[in-house]
Amino acid sequence: LLDQLLTRQERRESAARTYARTLPVAPVRAAGAQVVGADGRTYLDCLSGAGTLALGHNHPEVVAALQADLASGVPLHALDMITPQKDAFSEELLARLPGALRGDARLHFCGPAGTDAVEAALKLAQTATGRRGIVAFTGAYHGMTLGASAVSGPARMRSMVGADSVPVTRIPYPYSYRCPFGTGAPQSGELSARLLESMLTDPSSGIGKPAAVILEVVQGEGGVVEGPDSWLREIRRITAQHDVLLIIDEVQTGVGRTGHFWACEQAGVTPDILVMSKAVGGGLPLAVLAYLPDLDSWLPGDHTGTFRGNTLAMTAGRITLRTVAEQRLDRRAGQLGARLRQGLSEIALEQPQFGEVRGRGLMTGVELVDPDGDLDRLGSLPAAPAFAAALRSACLEQGLMLELGGREDSVLRLLPPLVLSDAELDAVLERIATAVRSVKS
Ligand code: PMP
């Protein structure tokens, strides 16, 4: 059955599919961190819909609230009109926002994907400042639409959209394992921030004054690369001083994933524009911006669209935000993540291909390298993409779904739901250890 399903769909769908090829599972049922495939096997899900399902699959409270909505006859879609669901979601979200945004932000529902919210954030920054340029970081991932691709790091993404869809200046992200400055953390953070400051201070740098700087606090698709707190605070200070807006993309890091409700809270930094999607919709498509009210420079209709806040997504999102906050699942993510990385570091002791184990909360990456390869000019070992792909397949064989990202797709990425149990965490580690042995032998 599985083979039939996969072959039929192979003919029907575009060649751009990824997960369907790397994880040939065809899920039919799921609960919590477990997914049952069409082959009847149960898999532990360390993807959770690319980080979307903070409460795991089919959380009973989310399901009950969705069923109640459906039974009540509420309009499933109401454009950008007000519904009780939107009212309740907005109230919940505003109460959870970081710093000065809490309680007092403007919300812009865009939709329905993370990339739409990034697009809206770039346009808002340009409209509010009357400037066009955007400063972005190497290794960044902000989505696949034109503007979001333009501010993303990988050259492959940008070459497809043309370099000039948005005027972008790129600065090295502080990546201590493969430090672009040849230093390592925290110096790489200082050098990255200094570079931004000198570009903004020195008129001969030729970039002109940009509208905004956009960044991820922890780069997810870029390979789980974490910007130091001191770097983030410096970027905030410099942008504020130069009257440049700071856009923080918390599409992947938001809603408890990194051990804080928002990743920017660890450094005590609040952006001018916060970009949210994934977990904020509790597993249904929803994307929203929060920004300071004085930036609300749009006129009615300036940035609109059909799908701007789906009723059911707002309900699933509200329950998710509330449950993560009330049950302190952000803290739990911090504790589980530390245990996960401890276990992975123990595997790494026996496994020279595990170059670095890193991450924050339940956003974990293992940078896989070729330990026998030559060091590059910055002193880094070569990436090990073939080993990484073999390890991902071996993990799937063991009943564990995870993904790759980062440089040459050689960073093993784990994004389990925040409700992962202790026993499931142990099983994740056991399965990785077994998979590693099977790839080695
Ligand atoms: N920003 C970040 C940080 C992301 O991780 C992603 C998706 N992985 C996006 C934006 C784009 O979101 P979407 O895939 O929903 O368009």
UniProtKB/TrEMBL annotation:
<comment type="similarity">
    <text>Belongs to the class-III pyridoxal-phosphate-dependent aminotransferase family.</text>
</comment>
<comment type="pathway">
    <text>Amine and polyamine biosynthesis; ectoine biosynthesis; L-ectoine from L-aspartate 4-semialdehyde: step 1/3.</text>
</comment>
<keyword id="KW-0808">Transferase</keyword>
<keyword id="KW-0032">Aminotransferase</keyword>
<keyword id="KW-0663">Pyridoxal phosphate</keyword>
<protein>
    <recommendedName>
        <fullName>Diaminobutyrate--2-oxoglutarate transaminase</fullName>
        <ecNumber>2.6.1.76</ecNumber>
    </recommendedName>
</protein>
